[in-house]
């Protein structure tokens, strides 16, 4: 029988009480926030559209008879400038090269194979797509899936398992988090985009080994993203790779937002930052963004892809990617590479870069607090105060500019933001109009946290130097 | 522990500051035994005692000499990771046949026309003219992708129309679209089942469900495949000896037609048990929508159970509806909850609009042509009968299942060995008789333990001669392969 001193018992109870109270408090705040956002933010999200998500699109107006609890669609639409969709290269709308080929492909292969890749869902088109993607990304082989989310969450469980370690950036996408959890591997997190902290975590973990038994780890994988979609930041890939090499950890790079969008020929962050793709063990990406389609890919060594094709659940159990979507990817990659016989691809790439850098620098000049790096087409504008979310979003929409606002729980409670995604489809006039509107609304809502100063750009300029 | 202590300390400090402030008011000054005691002195004294006490407590960490930098360097140098993937063996080099045309009931492989039994194209809607039409129109109007998640301008009017159409067809109040069939289950389950909840699940469920359960971190109890006695005894145990269980949320997860065996779940019995033991039911209708029931409304219609009795219904649309993606349907509360907290819905780009448009058309076609269901049912009966006397194989599936699942009569002891034999049979049928069938391959991540088999996906578009030829060929091929064993 163990006897506990009275005081110890008391303090122990007290500690538990505190923990419990904090937990409850957090849930309580979350509930309050959910309730608040339900009644105040409802109309800022899930806005339906009735056209392709091109540079301009039709936002369907909604009305509410019960104070924003439920919203009804009307037949009225509002033609808005689209600053929200991930249409980086402008392939979302009908395209003179892609669309006829997609429709041709539909006639030949129909909308679905109704079968998995391993059974009867592999057509010549799928084989062509994988070759095309591997070639574009710059790796020996590729495997494609019908959804980006599933790509992450079905691959990690195959590669990692008990006794292995996944070290994940603290701001990684939910699909990576779920994939890591599903794998059963131990998960550690390193500070967002901080190679020195990654170094520290790796050292500690290798020295400590597995929890309790202290056996050495079987293998270690570091998972990072190319462009962080809520931050607009580029991954510090060269530094992270050199850390991983030092400690023999495998590198998994999710290029969902960077493939096609950055780099001289659109090949993503590796090209932009001068990293040899051979140094990245697993390169993942999605087709929902730059290529205006759906699905995701993994590229890597021939053996890796062979192994994944043998055992990855998404290859064995999921319907293969829809043929028209596959054709859209093939055609858009051809455009990007100039294999369509025009220079449209190169123009698109130049355009998105100019557009992004122009827009970012103008926003900064106006005094907005803009996150992210140069060349990145994603630029969050900090709002901080959650009360500013509906105001900002509605006022922009009133002026026919559609922006995305992001709040808790997708971001920390204090860091609510609006997120702009620039597209190659935006013309200079579009951007100028958007800037006017954002500036007016920014003044109204009071989110120009910095003084407007034209010289500030130069200070920012030498911080980020990427070519 | 240290962190807790320090947070405790800081809490005490801030609390005492507050008390001190209150006590500092002039009225709180008191004189005890001639010594004036000011409020804050008292509090500080108390605080001192607490701090001294905390300091005197032994840290629970065993005293440990930290490793030196050199030692860590050595450890890091010595550490050798396993290779990322195991060595590639011969079986990993399997390449599936490549189709040179649409995956209809007749397709082309290696330049030769074959009869296709690998597509879950139950109603024969692959290549259907109406579907092709609506698909072309949608592609022209909306382009291919939606370029964003539903929350951020990825909601297109066809998505809302499709959700409403499915709800109307199935008689539920609302439904929600997912962009991929596989993600439907593994997003829906963790949206409802949480840590500590009890989930009773069939041991034969597919990987999507297994993964969803794993992510939910619920307590999972498996019952014997499609065995209601086993289910009942587990429900009994889970609720009886455990008083706490009464307060937990409890779920039963089943598939209507099991991908891994072709068995059909007896829903009426499950509903009876669920009501008796007060569980909720999550039902995967992927292989039964458009197949079971007199009008194709799935297992609920088949078992004459009102759909309201099933709490959550999910389905992949890459089967009878001949499109892609998936949906979940049920009460408005069930759906609204997912719109806020289902990870595959919130964090992924929405279903390409043309696929939603195909889904709407497919439901319309299904409703307007009840004869498709009749034809499918006839075909199922014919094939089931024709395959029931293949020497060396036995049918594991239900006579009404659109998946006719055959396994080896004589067990070979291991999944791998059985799969290899079945694989040989499938290859032989394809090569010699131009009948395209598939075996039930299994991922290393899959925990299902059911035996391997050959699957025939029956379609309403298969002709009588297709079916006859399939039965004939399978018999010959099986005899050939088994004789060589
Ligand atoms: C980093 C990252 N990975 C994966 C995904 C998922 O891709 P998909 O939308 O194609 O499912 C996203 C999408 O937002 C993403 O940002």
Automatic annotation (TrEMBL), chain A:
Gene3D superfamilies the record matches: Aspartate Aminotransferase, domain 1, Type I PLP-dependent aspartate aminotransferase-like (Major domain)
Spans traversing the lipid bilayer: 6-25
GO process terms (BP): ceramide biosynthetic process; sphingosine biosynthetic process
The protein's required cofactors: pyridoxal 5'-phosphate
Molecular functions per Gene Ontology: pyridoxal phosphate binding; serine C-palmitoyltransferase activity
The EC number(s) this enzyme carries: 2.3.1.50
Subcellular location: Endoplasmic reticulum membrane
Pathway: Sphingolipid metabolism; Lipid metabolism; sphingolipid metabolism
Cross-referenced InterPro entries: Aminotrans_II_pyridoxalP_BS (IPR001917), Aminotransferase_I/II_large (IPR004839), AON_synthase_class-II (IPR050087), PyrdxlP-dep_Trfase (IPR015424), PyrdxlP-dep_Trfase_major (IPR015421), PyrdxlP-dep_Trfase_small (IPR015422)
Membrane topology: Single-pass membrane protein
Subcellular location, principal: endoplasmic reticulum
Keyword Membrane attributed: yes
Domain Aminotransferase class I/classII large, residue spans: 80-438
Catalytic activity: L-serine + hexadecanoyl-CoA + H(+) = 3-oxosphinganine + CO2 + CoA
Keywords: Lipid metabolism, Membrane, Pyridoxal phosphate, Sphingolipid metabolism, Transferase, Transmembrane, Transmembrane helix
PANTHER family in alphabetical order: CLASS II AMINOTRANSFERASE/8-AMINO-7-OXONONANOATE SYNTHASE (PTHR13693), LD36009P (PTHR13693:SF3)
Family listed: Belongs to the class-II pyridoxal-phosphate-dependent aminotransferase family.
Protein name (Swiss-Prot/TrEMBL): serine C-palmitoyltransferase
Organism whose genome encodes this protein: Buddleja alternifolia
Automatic annotation (TrEMBL), chain B:
EC number(s) stated in the UniProt entry for this protein: 2.3.1.50
One example GO MF annotation: pyridoxal phosphate binding
Pfam families cross-referenced by the UniProt entry: Aminotran_1_2
Annotated keywords: Acyltransferase, Lipid metabolism, Pyridoxal phosphate, Sphingolipid metabolism, Transferase
Bilayer disposition of the protein: Single-pass membrane protein
InterPro entries xref list: Aminotransferase_I/II_large, AON_synthase_class-II, PyrdxlP-dep_Trfase, PyrdxlP-dep_Trfase_major, PyrdxlP-dep_Trfase_small
Catalytic activity: L-serine + hexadecanoyl-CoA + H(+) = 3-oxosphinganine + CO2 + CoA
Pathway: Lipid metabolism; sphingolipid metabolism; Sphingolipid metabolism
Domain Aminotransferase class I/classII large: 113-474
Cofactor(s) needed by this chain: pyridoxal 5'-phosphate
Source species, domain of life: Eukaryota
Gene Ontology CC entries for this record: endoplasmic reticulum membrane
PANTHER family linked to this entry: CLASS II AMINOTRANSFERASE/8-AMINO-7-OXONONANOATE SYNTHASE, SERINE PALMITOYLTRANSFERASE 1
Family membership: Belongs to the class-II pyridoxal-phosphate-dependent aminotransferase family.
Official protein name in the record: serine C-palmitoyltransferase
């Amino acid at each position: 029988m163990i006897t506990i001193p009275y005081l110890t018992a008391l303090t122990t109870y007290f500690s538990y009480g505190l923990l419990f109270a904090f937990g409850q408090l957090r849930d309580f705040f979350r509930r309050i926030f959910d309730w608040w956002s339900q009644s105040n933010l409802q109309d800022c999200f899930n806005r339906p559209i009735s056209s392709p998500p091109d540079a301009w699109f039709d936002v369907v107006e909604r009305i509410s008879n019960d104070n924003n609890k439920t919203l009804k669609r009307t037949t009225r639409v509002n033609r808005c400038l689209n600053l929200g969709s991930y249409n980086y290269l402008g392939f979302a709308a009908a395209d003179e090269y892609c669309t006829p080929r997609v429709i041709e492909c539909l006639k030949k292969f129909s909308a679905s194979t109704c079968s998995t890749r391993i059974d009867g869902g592999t057509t010549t088109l799928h084989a062509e797509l994988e070759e095309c993607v591997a070639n574009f990304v710059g790796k020996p082989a590729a495997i494609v899936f019908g959804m980006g989310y599933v790509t992450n969450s079905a691959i990690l469980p195959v590669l990692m398992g008990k006794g292995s370690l996944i070290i994940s950036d603290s701001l990684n996408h939910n699909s990576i988090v779920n994939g890591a959890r599903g794998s059963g591997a131990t998960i550690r997190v390193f500070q967002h985009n901080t190679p020195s902290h990654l170094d520290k975590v790796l050292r500690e973990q290798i020295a400590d080994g597995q929890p309790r038994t202290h056996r050495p780890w079987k293998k270690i994988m570091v998972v990072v993203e190319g462009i962080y979609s809520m931050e607009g930041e580029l991954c510090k890939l060269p530094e992270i790779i050199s850390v991983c090499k030092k400690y023999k950890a495998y590198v998994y790079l999710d290029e969902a937002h960077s493939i096609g969008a950055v780099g001289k020929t659109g090949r993503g962050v590796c090209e932009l930052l001068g990293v040899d793709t051979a140094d990245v063990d697993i390169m993942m990406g999605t087709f929902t963004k730059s290529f205006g389609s759906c699905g995701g890919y993994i590229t890597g060594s021939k053996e890796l892809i062979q192994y994944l094709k043998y055992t990855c659940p998404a290859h064995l159990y999921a319907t293969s990617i829809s043929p028209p979507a596959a054709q859209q990817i093939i055609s858009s990659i051809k455009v990007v590479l100039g294999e369509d016989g025009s220079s449209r691809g190169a123009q698109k790439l130049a355009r998105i870069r100019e557009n992004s850098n122009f827009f970012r620098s103008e926003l900064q000049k106006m005094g907005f607090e803009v996150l992210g790096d140069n060349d990145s087409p994603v630029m969050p504008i900090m709002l901080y105060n959650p009360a500013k979310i509906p105001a900002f979003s509605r006022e922009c929409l009133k002026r026919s500019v559609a922006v995305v606002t992001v709040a808790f729980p997708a971001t920390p409670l204090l860091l609510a933001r609006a997120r702009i995604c620039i597209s190659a489809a935006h013309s200079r006039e579009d951007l100028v109009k958007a800037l006017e509107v954002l500036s007016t609304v920014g003044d109204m809502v009071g989110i120009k946290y910095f003084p407007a100063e034209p010289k500030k750009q130069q200070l920012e300029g030498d911080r980020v130097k990427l070519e | 522990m240290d962190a807790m202590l320090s947070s405790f300390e800081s809490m005490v400090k801030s609390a005492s500051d507050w008390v001190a402030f209150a006590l500092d008011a002039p009225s709180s000054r008191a004189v005890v035994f001639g010594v004036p005691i000011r409020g804050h002195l008292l509090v500080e004294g108390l605080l001192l005692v607490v701090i001294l006490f905390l300091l005197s407590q032994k840290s629970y960490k065993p005293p440990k000499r930290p490793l030196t930098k050199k030692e860590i360097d050595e450890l890091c140098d010595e550490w050798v990771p396993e290779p990322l993937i195991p060595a590639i063996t011969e079986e990993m080099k399997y390449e599936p046949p490549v189709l040179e045309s649409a995956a209809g009931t007749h397709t082309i492989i290696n330049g030769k026309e074959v009869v296709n039994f690998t597509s879950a194209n139950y109603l024969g809607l692959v290549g259907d003219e109406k579907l092709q039409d609506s698909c072309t129109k949608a592609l022209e109007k909306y382009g291919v992708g939606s370029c964003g998640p539903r929350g951020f301008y990825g909601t297109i009017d066809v998505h809302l129309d499709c959700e409403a159409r499915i709800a109307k067809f199935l008689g539920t109040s609302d439904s929600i679209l997912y962009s991929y069939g596989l993600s439907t289950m593994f997003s829906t389950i963790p949206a409802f089942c949480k840590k500590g909840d009890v989930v009773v699940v069939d041991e034969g469920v597919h990987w999507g469900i297994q993964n969803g359960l794993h992510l939910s971190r619920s307590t999972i109890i498996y019952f014997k495949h499609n065995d209601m006695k086993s289910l009942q005894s587990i429900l009994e145990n889970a609720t009886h000896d455990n008083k706490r269980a009464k307060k937990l949320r409890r779920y039963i997860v089943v598939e209507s037609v099991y991908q891994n065996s072709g068995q059909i779940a007896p829903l009426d019995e499950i509903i009876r048990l669920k009501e008796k033991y007060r569980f909720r039911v999550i039902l995967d209708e992927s292989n039964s929508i458009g197949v079971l029931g007199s009008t194709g409304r799935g297992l609920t219609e088949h078992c004459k159970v009102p759909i309201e009795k099933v709490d959550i219904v999910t389905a992949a649309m890459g089967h009878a509806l001949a499109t892609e993606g998936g949906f979940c349907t049920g009460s408005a509360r069930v759906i609204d909850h997912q719109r806020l907290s289902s990870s595959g819905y919130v964090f992924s780009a929405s279903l390409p609009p043309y696929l939603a448009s195909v889904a709407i058309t497919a439901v319309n076609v299904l409703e307007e042509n009840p004869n498709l269901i009749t034809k499918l049912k006839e075909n199922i009966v014919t094939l089931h009968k024709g395959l029931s006397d293949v020497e060396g194989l036995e049918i594991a599936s239900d006579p009404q299942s659109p998946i006719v699942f055959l396994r080896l009569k004589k067990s070979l002891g291991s999944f791998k060995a059985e799969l290899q034999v079945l694989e040989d049979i499938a290859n032989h049928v394809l090569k010699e008789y131009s009948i395209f069938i598939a075996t039930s391959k299994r991922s290393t991540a899959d925990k299902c333990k059911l035996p391997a088999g050959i699957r025939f996906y029956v379609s309403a578009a298969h002709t009588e001669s297709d079916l006859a030829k399939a039965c004939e060929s399978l018999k010959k091929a099986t005899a050939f392969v088994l004789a060589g064993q």
